[in-house]
Specification:
Length: 643
């Protein structure tokens, strides 16, 4: 099964066992000074053991003064030993190890202590920055060569040069960013000079048989004067002549709305960048890696079968399920835990410096805890009753089964997956719905007993006396207490997404969070004129950075109006009376949809019955506090570890 995906490939002196690449995704699992930690080694070891063909270790700084904290570094000899432990961990688990050499430029805003090297004089993040000097350019070029030599000593099988995403080499290459007037600016030849010097420095420092990859953007998005795909093709040809073997074709940047393509959320079509990789492969005659929302084995196999690429990046697919490759190769695709492109743990988690020390994953709470959270069999198997078959309850059941317990899921409705399925009813989110359905089937197939149309009651607990009870009853939409909110023209957003009601005519959606905006999207797609009323000064605050960009672009294209700083006062026959910064007005509409949040369902009666029956009692997910799915699912995992 998937013969092309799991066929070997030879690049110079390196043979990879299959065509699956774990890309150099930032994790923030490195130490304060960029040193390799046991956590980072365990993360890579798990993906290597899971069958990945090539692990590319994340963005490794080559220059100490500009290296941000908790980004991997290979800028000093003292770091080689840690890297050797990492390559050993990958090799011992059957994988091959690469590392991406990186010079961050404006990306060092993650760490204000790190020096920011930029191509031109500019003001960025409140700082006035001077252009890097020619002497400093040569220092950085030498750093690339020295870093490459350290990588060889540390046991890496190949290297990757990062020349994308507005980092320093890309900043020189792009005419939309490089406005220098010396030998490093102006013409295409001059703009190519610095990245080519870096490539030559790397190539000269590594053995002839060691492959050199290059990550490159297919073109610049939303950047006036930026790189075209024709320029990229020409640069790739020249890079190939200077020692690059493989082109890792990405897209996106960190200074425009094009950032949405760097870690594309569910709103961006699967494989959106594949045709660019195919064209670059065709016109350069070089080996190419396809990148961009490739998250199923079927999709990856088709790309390879159609000769659109030689390898495929499957990054978040392996964050969600480190055993992705093994399961796909063995034909166990129904057991794969699929990435749903939510970005809540990988991208939002990476950027959330205050609340998350490193990345995580909505589908895989164990990410980053591979070593310390290894699941062990329970000494005494217990019968555990779970109230609610949403994603938190399903995750708890999955982990309980792995530990040898006997979970019984009580689901009031006729399906498993809860609000994840509701969310998956929004336009463009079908794969979220399918992931929830697939997860429910996996838990049932693994041995969980499920009682549909049967809410867990105190009477059942009293009569059947389980050993433990987990309340995962979720949350319910908040009923807005507003004059006129009981009118027939008013309904809940969840009912719209579930197709339980069809509002008439023009619609006002009260609430501009995730649920409100997705309801607005669904209504606009069905042909309704839509306005969203949000009391805060911006809508979509709970979407995460990249999903917000994508959703706002889509709503703008659908002519959905968004009114912010709008306090709703009354719903009457003509519409919604609001007070904005400009004063009081009536937003005329035929129907009103409420999306003002959710509140936890009461589980106190279950708690009381459990205590009387001598059963351990836990509350998880939205039943504890309504919030993002990533937190609810993590709570299901953690609670099941404790039982």
């Amino acid at each position: 099964m998937y013969d092309r995906l799991f066929s070997p490939i030879q690049i110079r002196g390196l043979e990879l066992k299959n065509r699956v690449v774990l890309p150099a995704m930032g994790t923030r699992m490195a130490g304060e000074k960029g040193e390799i930690t046991p956590r980072l080694a365990a993360y890579h070891a798990a993906r290597a053991a899971g069958g990945c063909g090539l692990n590319i270790v994340e963005v490794a700084a080559v220059h100490t003064p500009s290296a941000p904290a908790h980004f991997v570094s290979i800028s000093d000899d003292s770091l080689i030993g840690g890297h050797k432990k990492l390559t050993d961990a990958i090799h011992q688990n059957g994988g091959k190890a690469a590392i991406q050499l990186w010079q961050g430029s404006i990306a060092t805003t993650f760490d204000p202590r790190a020096e920011m090297l930029v191509v031109n004089d500019m003001e960025f993040a409140g700082k006035k920055l001077k252009a890097i000097t020619t002497d400093r350019i040569q220092e950085i070029v030498e750093c690339y060569g020295k870093a490459a030599a350290r990588c060889v000593e540390a046991g890496y099988d190949c290297l990757e040069f990062h020349c994308a995403h507005n980092y320093l080499p890309h900043s020189f290459l792009s005419g939309g960013l490089n406005h220098r007037t010396d030998e490093y600016g102006g013409s295409f030849e001059n703009r190519s000079r610095f990245p080519l010097e870096c490539i030559r420095a790397i190539r000269n420092a590594i053995p002839e048989e060691m492959p050199l990859f290059m990550r490159i953007d297919a073109h610049d998005d939303y950047l006036p004067g930026g790189l075209t795909i024709e320029e990229i093709i020409e640069f790739c040809r020249i890079a190939g002549e200077n020692g690059v073997d493989v082109l890792d074709v990405s897209r996106g940047n960190i200074i425009t709305a094009g950032s949405v393509y760097e870690v594309p959320p569910i709103d961006i079509p699967r494989g959106f960048n594949v045709e660019n990789a195919a064209r670059i492969r065709r016109e350069t005659k070089m080996a190419t890696i396809a990148v961009g929302r490739i998250n199923t084995a079927e999709q990856a196999e088709a790309i390879l079968e159609e000769d659109k690429a030689d390898m495929v990046v499957m990054g978040r697919a392996q964050l969600a399920d480190p055993e992705f490759c093994n399961k796909a190769r063995e034909g166990r695709t129904e057991d794969i835990i699929h990435c749903v492109g939510c970005n809540q743990g990988c991208y939002d988690g990476f950027c959330d410096l205050r609340n998350r020390p490193f990345i995580t994953c909505l589908r895989n709470p164990c990410l980053g805890h591979e070593e310390e959270w290894k699941l062990t069999k329970a000494e005494t198997p217990k019968r555990v009753y779970i109230a609610g078959g949403g994603m938190a309850g399903l995750e708890a059941a999955r982990v309980l089964l792995m530990r040898g317990h006997h979970p019984v899921i009580f689901e009031a409705g006729d399906r498993l997956g809860g609000q994840f399925i509701t969310a998956g009813q929004a336009p463009g989110k079908e794969e979220m719905k399918q992931a929830a359905i697939s997860f429910g089937r996996l838990v049932e197939r693994s041995g969980a007993e499920v009682r549909f149309h049967t809410p867990l009651t105190p009477e059942i607990i009293t009569e059947e006396k389980p050993d433990a009870v987990i309340a995962a009853v979720g949350s319910a939409p908040i009923e807005l207490k507003l004059p006129g909110s009981g009118k027939k023209m008013v309904c809940q957003a969840h009912a719209v997404l579930e197709h339980e009601v069809e509002p008439e005519g023009s619609v006002c959606v009260i609430g501009g969070g995730l649920v409100g905006l997705e309801a607005a999207d669904a209504l606009a797609a069905a042909g309704h004129p839509v306005k969203v009323l949000e009391m805060k000064d911006t809508a979509g605050e709970d979407l995460g950075m990249l999903r917000k960009i994508a959703v706002m672009q889509k709503l703008g294209g659908e002519s959905v109006g968004i009114i912010t700083n709008a306090r709703c006062l009354e719903i009457n026959e003509t519409g919604v009376v609001v007070e904005t910064l400009e004063g009081k007005e009536t937003v005329v509409c035929d129907s009103v949809v409420l999306a003002v949040g959710s509140a936890s369902r009461d589980s106190s009666a279950l708690k009381e019955a459990s205590e009387k029956a001598g059963a351990d009692f836990f509350v998880i997910g939205d039943a504890k506090r309504a919030r993002r799915a990533i937190d609810a699912i993590a709570e299901g995992f953690d609670t099941a570890r404790q039982v």
